[in-house]
Amino acid sequence: MVMDNRAKQQLIVWWTVWAAFQTGIFVIYFFLTNNHAPLPASTSGSPFWLIGFVPLVISVLLRWLVLPLMPSAQAALTVFILGIAFAESCCFLGLFIFPPFRVELFLMSVFGILQFIPLFANRYFG
After folding, report:
1. Which of 35, 36, 44, 59 might form a disulfide with 87, Cβ 3.0–4.6 angstroms?
2. Domains in the chain: boundaries
3. What are the residue ranges of helices labelled H in 33-121?
4. What are the C-alpha distances in Å from 44 to residues 15, 41, 50, 96?
C-alpha cells in the first residue's frame, strides 16, 4: 500500500499531536510538582478523589466506542484530540484538586493518552 504525499503529511499531524500531548504531560507534571516535597497527607478516607477518574472514563469511551465510528479523518481528528484532552485533564485534577493522589492520576493520564497512539489512523488515508 503506497500513500500519496498529502496522506503522509496528514498522518504526520496525527503522530505529532499525539507525541506532543504524551511528552507534554511529563513536562507539565514535573514542572508543576516539587519532587523534593513530600506528598500532602490525605485529609480523610473519602473516596471523593475518585472523581478524578471521570475524565479518563470519558476518554476511554471516546477512544474505543466513538472514534471507530468516525467516517472521515476530519471527524476522527476532532474526537482524537478531545479524547486526549480528557485523559490529560486527569493529571491536572491530581495536581490542583487532589494533590495527595497526584501520582495515581498522573499515571492514569499517561495511560489514557497512550491508548490514543494513532496506529488506527492509517485507515483514513489508505
Report:
1. 59
2. 5-33+48-124
3. 54-61, 73-96, 102-114
4. 41, 9, 13, 17
